What does this fold into?
Amino acid sequence: MLKKLIIRWSVFFIVLTVLYFIVNAKVHAVAEASLKSAITVTVPVYTKDELINNLESRLKYLYLRTKGVKFYVYKVKKRENLWTIAKKYGYSVHTIIGCNPQMKTYNVNEGQKLLIPNIGGTLHPVQPEDTIKTISEKYGVEESVLKNTNFALDGDLRKEFFVFVPGKRPLVNLLNENMQKKYALRDLFVSPLGGRISSPFGKRRHPVTGKASVHGGVDIAVREGTPVGAAASGVVILASYDVGHYGVAVFIDHQNGYITHYGHLSKILVRQGQKVRQGQIIARSGSTGRSTGPHLHFTVKRNGVNVDPLQFLW
It folds into this structure.
């Protein structure tokens, strides 16, 4: 009886052991197959040119490397420009320029795509000699601010292409050559006043005559009596209450090949021959001469030829 019992238990344990090894083998086989079929996640590798010229690649790159800031691909709408887009997001045009290194001009066209952040700042193109310390010194920000906005800044920055610097303008010497030249022009003049550009430079239908014509400056819509400042230092060569279609106007020679005109004024605060400094109040806006409402007509002449004032004004 005891012998039979031992045999039965022996057979039971043998069967149990065989079943264990069979099940274990199947589990390992399933696990191995799952590992082989699993999706391999890899971090995308980008080239510098790809990140500069491809917005989608730059968007993905920044998504993995920034925190507390979101980027979007924005499609320019009809009649929009960099200034109206920047105003929509509550920051300056410098942010859009700084986040779009592919741009070579201020002009944008309907349907054009731009990379837009949800906060003001700029992308710093990492240089070979850069460290987090040198970047913070270049922009005048604390290292902690950069670390709070960008991942992995404690490592080797030579592996990085861009660092987002919140609240700062792009460094002009790190922009592409075309934009460097345009920024240099912006240093020549400041805007004579703040307001809405109601009529840009170039071809248009004249608001008074209704005829096709070329607008030699820009019209800035403001309330009558708004202070008008000199766009740059110079000498007043004309200050008159009767300058034809300009009405009341002031002309300033900046003695570097540039002359600026300020038309449709209501009051003149300078005299002919007077030296003025940049930003000095020279007049008050109005609607004199050939005008449909209160605004400032602002003209820039370079060596006697009218040029678009928006080349110079932010």
User: Anything to note?
Assistant: The chain has eight helices and 16 strands. Residues 196-311 form a domain with the Glucose Permease (Domain IIA) fold (CATH 2.70.70.10). The longest strand covers residues 258-268. The CA atoms of residues 19 and 209 lie 100 Å apart.
